[in-house]
Design a protein that fits this description.
Length: 488
């Protein structure tokens, strides 16, 4: 029977059997299944027409907010437009139907792409070697810390220094990796105080985790001095690369003195994220850290016919081991690769420049209406404080909800922690001048409402499918199960 099937399938032009066709080919379901397992009556499935199904899902999709629907100025998250062609490329059958257990010679194309991607990311970051394995930014941080541990193996260095503006995943990764955290207060410009840094760097310092530009959207001008201080103490300098969108093609972490950097492929390189991933937290390191990279590393060797062959190198005795099942989220790497190859070096540079111009345009237009605690040119994002509105009884959380009424996703709020009533705004390069102007007009209107009629802001949102929720009740009496009563 199988022979018959194979002959049929191997005929030129045969595109395969669809599932319902198969039993028929074999001579009906009766020839495969015992009669006791066969259905005696028709299955009573609900009948829906295609338009009904399409309308149902479209209606659901427009109830939600997403980047294809409107502005998403979520600071620190880089919610840029994800070109659809990235998905088309990642869905090509050669990529999407490859099994993770496929032998290397059956997936040479995918391995070549991964190898190429490693080289491209090394060139973008100024690092020597890359792993694509970590699943997201936080997973890249954790991998980097494990590599630091392996590097300092004999020295028992136990501290990691983190600025007080850092993203919450930084201290969490430090704790997870078994290090102590040393918190470094920022100076009055929101930047690293190099004297304070020098005073905490010592023989116990394993490394310094720094986000540049930092979470206030400010570039650390003293970065070379910072690198010298950390290196003189014997520590490693790690860059949280979540904000790399501001640097693409302009400056490279490797040239600034960083020893390790993680990418957020799902932010900077335009692959989907949110809802916990899956993302891509590729990690770049200088050559002296290369032996510690997670296994496997995608490598290349020259074959007999002078053709290159690509393989997964597991033979790495100093490796920290695996940090992800198989080889990481390969489809995310493919989408990011497609994005990079379409834009080229000049396109990448334009991303950073446009993101910076867009953020400064918003900042300059909003600083009269909201407090701007650090008034200096910003990179790709900036942070306002809602303290002026708080004087009228309007909290930043209410401003965030009122923004939803205008078809805009709320900015990141209450982070970074060093800004009171923080509103962290990142427009990205995706937004046009019209859309930035719309955002400005909405923010100005909300500032006016907060002053003249705070109730409008405090009772928002009123235009969304779900109105204002009772947050206290929701946190104390959480019941998120749809129709939960039915199942009890
Ligand atoms: C500065 C910074 N570091 C790290 C992360 C963590 O990245 P991920 O969400 O991919 O784990 C984020 C995420 O928003 C971030 O903004």
């Amino acid at each position: 029977m199988y022979d018959k099937l194979l002959i049929e399938l191997s005929r030129p032009g045969h595109t395969g059997f669809s599932l319902p066709e198969l039993p028929e080919y074999y001579g009906g379901a009766e020839s495969i299944l015992p009669s006791s397992c066969l259905r005696k009556s028709e299955l009573d499935l609900p009948e829906l027409s295609e338009p009904e199904v399409v309308r149902h899902f479209i209606a659901l999709s427009v109830k939600n907010h997403h980047i294809d629907k409107g502005i998403y100025p979520l600071g620190s998250c880089t919610m840029k437009y994800n070109p659809k062609v990235n998905d088309v490329i990642a869905s090509l059958p050669g990529f999407s139907s490859a099994h993770p257990h496929s032998p290397a010679d059956c997936v040479q194309g995918t391995l070549e792409l991964m190898y190429d991607m490693q080289n491209i990311l090394a060139a973008i970051s100024g690092m020597d070697s890359i792993t694509l394995q970590p699943a997201a930014g936080a997973s890249g941080e954790f991998t980097a810390l494990l590599m630091m541990k392996a590097y300092h193996k004999k020295q028992n260095r136990k501290n990691i220094i983190i600025p007080d503006s850092a993203h919450g995943t930084n201290p969490a990764s430090v704790a997870l990796a078994g290090y102590n955290m040393v918190k470094l207060p920022s100076n009055n410009k929101g930047l690293i105080d190099t004297e304070k840094l020098a005073s905490v760097c010592d023989k116990d310092t394993a490394g310094f985790m720094l986000t540049n530009p930092n979470t206030l959207g400010l570039f650390e001008n003293d970065i070379e001095k910072i690198a010298t201080i950390v290196h003189e103490s014997g520590g490693l300098l790690y860059m949280d690369g979540a904000n790399l969108n501001a640097l693409l093609g302009l400056v490279r972490p490797g040239d600034m003195g960083f020893d390790i950097v993680h990418f957020n492929l799902h932010k900077t390189l335009s692959t989907p994220h949110g809802g916990g991933g899956p993302g891509g937290g590729a990690l770049g390191v200088k050559s002296f850290l290369e032996p510690f990279l997670p296994i496997p590393v995608v490598s290349r060797k020259s074959g007999k016919t002078e053709k290159y062959t690509y393989f997964l190198d597991f033979n790495r005795p100093d490796s920290i081991g695996k940090v992800h099942g198989f080889y990481g989220n390969v489809a995310i790497a493919i989408m990011a690769y497609a994005f990079i190859r379409q834009l080229g070096p000049e396109g990448l540079k334009n991303i950073a420049k446009t993101a910076i111009i867009n953020a400064n345009y918003l900042k300059e237009n909003l600083k009269e209406d909201y407090i701007l605690p650090y008034d200096s040119p910003c990179m790709h994002e900036f942070v306002l404080s809602g303290d002026k509105q708080l004087e009228h009884g309007v909290k930043t959380s209410a401003i965030a909800k009122r923004i939803l009424d205008f078809g805009i996703h709320a900015p990141t709020v209450y982070f970074p922690l060093i800004v009171h009533e923080a509103l962290m705004i990142e427009p990205t390069e995706s937004e046009s001048k019209q859309s930035l102007d719309y955002f400005i007009s909405v923010m100005k209107q909300i500032a006016r409402e907060a002053k003249e009629n705070p109730e409008i802001v405090n009772s928002a949102p009123t235009n969304t499918p779900v109105g204002k929720l009772d947050e206290a009740k929701a946190s104390k009496n959480l019941d998120v199960c749809w129709k939960s009563k039915v199942y009890k």
